[in-house]
Each structure stands twice: as structure tokens, then as C-alpha cells.
Specification:
single chain; 465 residues; alpha+beta; 2 domains; five-stranded mixed β-sheet; two-stranded antiparallel sheet; 15 helices; 46% helix; globular
């Protein structure tokens, strides 16, 4: 077993700015968490009757290592004192309850990173949780992160884009659940006995987003022969500049989920909808960020232009060809943006080269945003099912539905005596298949996209076992 340092060992460190991951207690914490993760079931519990299961003594010993490491590292992070105390209590409570389904509600309520957004502030976060677009199981995870909150971003949030729950973050190091495609830290993924009345924060890792964007965009530009405007190649080559673009994009995108003429905000109310509704909502938020970026560029905000290119390239090149084809709503949004721009002659695939009319791209992209906003505004007066069909009509105007689609045949092909949520069963897993262009691009970029799993600006040290 790895030796765990006592809290006294780190008391001599003068500044909370010391890197948590440089302390011996951090690899010890990672190692213990990795051992426990292997024992956990999907719901986070440990089944001591399963094959190759640990003994209760083994589990308590490893959990004790986690507790000791957290206590050793906590003095470096006095701003998280209440959280770390609650975390230790919840860890011990999990053991006392026999390692059943974990409940870390008290620790979750104590963790409030949005309450003190300071650029460079570190957090040591340990929770049983699933990692969105990563590990679907609620395993124990540990991650050290830093807040990204430069003065220019704080000023924009204060004066134009109020979003008190948003936290831009970067990775310092992490356990296996984040050695994936996950780029978020969301409170709703954490194992608790009941959801809090409201969530008060949400974190997005702009370093992973930026590093992934740079690698995929560079490969796509080379593959497609895209001629880039002046200065854009410098953007793609600059990790810090890309991170600034993504943290601004994320902040505006995140607040848009609760702003505008919303018949339903699919991420505020749990409901079952056809996946194109989620695709349109995510695209609406991204295109709103694009529209605001055009305004910011006009107002002299340097990051405004970069956000526009980040939205276009990520949506056009990465989203449609990432992930599987089962209800891939982000992929659908990227396909729709490409098809809309293509229909309006902003993008042309000619002589095996992708040509982009950069002068018209902002105007036409904003026109698609306006179409989606009109759909939402009109939707306030529609029944849910009618609104779903109106959204389907918008998407299918630009994207060809699957030939076997029942929804494409219209309302007469569906059993309208069913509740709307039951009609979702008639939606095909891949209702809007990839075009021939994207099928070919997917093959070209497959290995590049796979290589971005777990990517950061500085790759994390492999977890100790």
C-alpha cells in the first residue's frame, strides 16, 4: 500500500497556491480511489458477495487511505474547508453503512465553487459520480482542478452575461472516469439520496475542449483543404487563446438554456422528448453564443472573433462525426448547421475541397439561429406534440430523414392515442443519418477523434494502482 502522509506533513507549506498534485498525498489518493473504483457496482455500491470482491476490511482500509489523503491535502485549500469536512464525514458514513449505494448529499451541498470564482484557484474534488460522455457508472472519482476566471471574463459576466452558477475550469489531474471524453463537472451526476432543491454551480473544462478542438480542427482543415482566414491558424496553434474562446463560449451557452422565448427548456425540466429537440436546444445555445460573439467582436472584445471560429469548426468538423449514431443530438446539430450553410452557398464541396465564404458565414449562421428562435417563440402557443412536429419539419427541411422513419411520414403514420412520450419510441436511433460527405469525413477523422480521449493541455499522470 502507498504510504499516506498525515496532515502535519503539509502544514509547513506557506501558500495555498502550491500545486496540490505535487504533494505525495495526491498520488496516494489517486491510487486508493482507483482500487475502490474496481470494486464498485454501477450504482456505486460494493457487492461483497461478488466474484473477486474485496473483504470488508480491505474496503475500509482503502477508504481510510482516501480519508487520510484528503485530510493531508485540505490545508492547502482553506476555501474548501467546509466541503472537505463534509466529504470526510460522507466517506466515513458510506463505510459505516456497509458500502451500499453512496450518498454524498452533505458534501455536495458544502461544495460551492461558484461562490468564490478566482482565477487560478484550486479545488480537490472527490465524489461518487458518473462522468458525462465518460463513465456511466457512479464510481468514486478524484480530480484536482483550477478555476478559469480572468478579469475580462468576470467583467463580461458582470455587465452582459450574468451567469452566477458558471465556473470555467481546467484539469490538474484526475482518476479514470475523466480519462474519457468527459469535459464537465456537474452536480447532477453525483450520487445523493435526493436531488437538492436547486443546483448552484456547473463546471466545464475549457482546457480539454480547447485541446480537442485544436487537434480535430487541424486534421479536418488538412483533410478538406480549407483555406483559413488570416490569423485563424495562429488560433488553432495557441492552447491558451483557445481556452479563452471556449470559456467565453461556455459561459454564454450555459446561460442561454434559461434565456429566450422557451416553450420548454429541456435541461431544466426532466422530460422525455425526441432527440432532435435536444439537438435544437444545444444548437440554439451555441448559435446564440456565436451571435453574441459577433457583437463582441464589433465592440472590440478580442475573444469575440475566436469564439465564432471555435463554434463553426467544432460544430462543422467534430460534432457530426463524434460518438455513436444512437440519439446523437450534438451530432445532429452539427449536421444541421453544415446543411444550412451549404444550402445557402456559404460552404461548397468542390474539387475535393471545402470552400467557406467567410464574409457571409456570420450573417447566414445568425439566420439559422433566428429560425430556431422563431420555432421556440411560436412553440409557446402549440401543444407539445405539434411543437415536436414543427421542429421535425425544420430539421427535415435541411437533413434527409431515414427512409424507414415513421415520423417522416407525418402524424397520420403515428398512433396519436398514445401519450407524446410514448411516441418517442417510434423515433429511430439514427433518425437523420450522416450524409455521404460526413460518412467519408468520419472515416478520415476516426483515429484523430479517438486520440482525444482524456486529452488535456498537459496530459495527466497515469493513475497509480
Amino acid at each position: 500500500m502507498t504510504e499516506i502522509l498525515s496532515p502535519a506533513v503539509v502544514q509547513g507549506i506557506d501558500s495555498p497556491a502550491e500545486r496540490v498534485i505535487d504533494e505525495p498525498a495526491w498520488p496516494a489518493l489517486k491510487g486508493a480511489v482507483e482500487v475502490i473504483r474496481r470494486w464498485q457496482s454501477k450504482d456505486g455500491s460494493i457487492d461483497f458477495e461478488a466474484a473477486e470482491a474485496p473483504t470488508r476490511v480491505d474496503a475500509e482500509l482503502e477508504l481510510g487511505h482516501v480519508v487520510s489523503a484528503v485530510e493531508a491535502l485540505a490545508p492547502l485549500l482553506p476555501h474548501d474547508a467546509a466541503y472537505h469536512q463534509a466529504l470526510v464525514a460522507d466517506l466515513r458514513g458510506w463505510a459505516d453503512a456497509g458500502f451500499g449505494v453512496p450518498d454524498f448529499l452533505n458534501a455536495l451541498l458544502a461544495f460551492q465553487p461558484a461562490a468564490q470564482r478566482a482565477d487560478g484557484l484550486q479545488h480537490l474534488v472527490v465524489f461518487p459520480m458518473y462522468t458525462q460522455n465518460g463513465n456511466p457508472d457512479r464510481n468514486l472519482e478524484a480530480v484536482v482542478l483550477r478555476v478559469v476566471w480572468p478579469d475580462w471574463l468576470a467583467e463580461l459576466e458582470r455587465t452582459r452575461y450574468d451567469n452566477p452558477m458558471f465556473v470555467g475550469i481546467t484539469f490538474e489531474d484526475f482518476t479514470s472516469g475523466y480519462d474519457t471524453n468527459s469535459a464537465v463537472l456537474f452536480p447532477e451526476t453525483i450520487a445523493v439520496r435526493k436531488a437538492p432543491e436547486r443546483f448552484t454551480w456547473g463546471g466545464i473544462f475549457c482546457d480539454r475542449e480547447a485541446a480537442r478542438f485544436r487537434r480535430v480542427t487541424e486534421a479536418a482543415v488538412e483533410t478538406l483543404g480549407v483555406q483559413l482566414p488570416e490569423g485563424v491558424r495562429e488560433l488553432i496553434g495557441d492552447q491558451q487563446r483557445c481556452q479563452q474562446a471556449f470559456v467565453l463560449w461556455d459561459m454564454v451557452h450555459d446561460r442561454t438554456h434559461s434565456h429566450g422565448d422557451l416553450p420548454f427548456d429541456p435541461f431544466m425540466i426532466k422530460q422525455r422528448q425526441p432527440f432532435w429537440m435536444y439537438g435544437l436546444e444545444e444548437l440554439r445555445c451555441d448559435l446564440t453564443a456565436f451571435k453574441e460573439a459577433v457583437k463582441l467582436e464589433a465592440d472590440g472584445v478580442a475573444q469575440g472573433r475566436d469564439v465564432q471560429y471555435a463554434v463553426l469548426f467544432d460544430r462543422l468538423f467534430r460534432f457530426p462525426v463524434s460518438g455513436d449514431r444512437v440519439r446523437n443530438y450534438d451530432g445532429l446539430g452539427g449536421q444541421l448547421l453544415f446543411a444550412y450553410l451549404h444550402k445557402h452557398d456559404v460552404v461548397r464541396w468542390t474539387d475535393n475541397t471545402l470552400h467557406i465564404d467567410w464574409d457571409r458565414a456570420p450573417q447566414v449562421t445568425n439566420e439559422l439561429c433566428a429560425e430556431i428562435e422563431k420555432l421556440y417563440r411560436d412553440g409557446i402557443d402549440r401543444p407539445k406534440l405539434v411543437h415536436w412536429f414543427a421542429a421535425y419539419d425544420l430539421v427535415s427541411t435541411y437533413l434527409a430523414p431515414h427512409p424507414g422513419s415513421v415520423w417522416a411520414k407525418g402524424p397520420d403514420a403515428l398512433d396519436l392515442t398514445k401519450l407524446p412520450r410514448k411516441l418517442v419510441d417510434d423515433v429511430l436511433p439514427d433518425e437523420f443519418p450522416l450524409s455521404m460527405f460526413y460518412e467519408a469525413l468520419a472515416k478520415k477523422l476516426r483515429d484523430v477523434i479517438a486520440s482525444t480521449k482524456g486529452i488535456t493541455a498537459e496530459p495527466a499522470v497515469p493513475a497509480a494502482v
